[in-house]
Amino acid sequence: MRRNPDTTTLPVVGSIEFDAVDLAIVHALDIDGRMPFARIAEVLGVSDATVVRRYRRMRASGAIRVVAIGDTRRTGQAAWVLRVRCVPDAVEAVAEGLGRRSDVAWVQLLSAGAEVMCVTRPRGPQARGDQLLRNIGRAAGVGELEAHCILRVVVGGPPGWRAQNIGLDADQVAALTRFAPVVDPDAPLPPWSDDDRALFAALSRDGRMSFADLARTCGTSESAVRRRLEVLRATGVLYFEVETDPEYLGYAMPAFLWMSVRPSALDAVAEAVAADARAVFAAVSTGRANFLVNVLCRDTADLYDFIAHTLGSVEGITNVETTPIVETFKREGPMPQPRRRR
């Protein structure tokens, strides 16, 4: 395998910058968040100590974090995307309050300045989340709540957010992918236990927690934790994702698009969006905007290209509302304390 050069850098975000080796490590962890550091080092052509040191530096600075995520498509839970219009003076308090909830993820401030979007994942199989939505709608500072129930995910979920060519070449990706867990989407779901909840809670804080630490946290043996995690991953109930600010990877223009699409055109639009690597999440939903897309673009020209050419090439889109993402309060894992500001 080629050795990744240690010279190219991306714009500084906060107090740290990523070079080519850092980017390759992030890309490797996007393939498998629990990939052994020794395997990553072998493929990159660097020492084990280099990978460990780089990862610890990035994680300690808050630049990256590996977290466990439950796949709602496998568990049958209802997922909702909420667009919350707030009283202007209350927008940060509303966002912080949403971020503290364990059943809410992806809390982001939109360009309008008084709008927050988030994703909810009500607990329990087939949960509709009515009470959760009512609680959010009644929260202080919330003026209007627009709720979209996800009907079909087009882009998103395992194996991560499709890190497009950020650090590894095709041979390196292939070398690492062959060691990643294979998911059987038709496998019967394992019964969910209190031990699983404890395991998931620990891994949602640190997806690379050692088996020894997981065993102590869950009050069981290392072998039991290892076997259970293998089952949860193999059945697709749980997967791992790398959280990082897109600016570290060169994407300075993240945006969320609220689209209205004719029913007859949904499949064609889904195919076009899924073929564009800038789309990191896309879903068909209920609501006035029935097709939702999250894109990571490098700049305004890149965003224009996605709208004009990827979306413009498909018939049946009747409206597109584009809202740049100004700030992310929380991603999938627990909200960082103290929260890092962009």
Quick structural gist:
This is HTH asnC-type domain-containing protein. The protein is of the alpha+beta class.
Task: For the largest sheet, list the strands in their spatial order.
Answer: 2-4-3-10-7-9-8-5
| CATH class type of the domain at 20-71 and 159-244 | Mainly Alpha
Largest sheet, in brief, is: 8 strands, antiparallel, barrel
Name of the CATH architecture of the domain at 20-71 and 159-244:
Orthogonal Bundle
Tell me the series of helices and strands, N- to C-terminal: HHHEHEHEEHEHHHHEEHEEHE
Distance between the termini: 36 Å
How would the blueprint of this fold be written?
Layout (H helix, E strand, L loop, with lengths): L19 H12 L5 H8 L3 H13 L3 E7 L1 H4 L4 E7 L4 H9 L4 E7 L4 E6 L9 H8 L4 E14 L14 H8 L16 H12 L5 H8 L3 H13 L3 E7 L8 E9 L4 H9 L4 E7 L5 E7 L2 H12 L5 E14 L12
Helix pairs in contact: 2-3, 9-10
Task: Name its key features.
342 residues; alpha+beta; Arc Repressor Mutant, subunit A; 8-stranded antiparallel barrel; two-stranded antiparallel sheet; 25% strand; globular; disordered N terminus
Description:
By secondary structure, the chain is α+β, with helices and mostly antiparallel strands. The chain has a domain at 20-71 and 159-244: Arc Repressor Mutant, subunit A (Orthogonal Bundle), CATH 1.10.10.2890. The protein is 34% helix and 25% strand. The chain has helices spanning 20-31, 37-44, 48-60, 72-75, 91-99, 130-137, 170-177, 194-205, 211-218, 222-234, 266-274, 300-311; strands at residues 64-70, 80-86, 104-110, 115-120, 142-155, 238-244, 253-261, 279-285, 291-297, 317-330. A hairpin with a 4-residue loop joins strand 3 (104-110) and strand 4. The two termini are 36 Å apart. Residues 18-78, 196-252 form the HTH asnC-type domain.
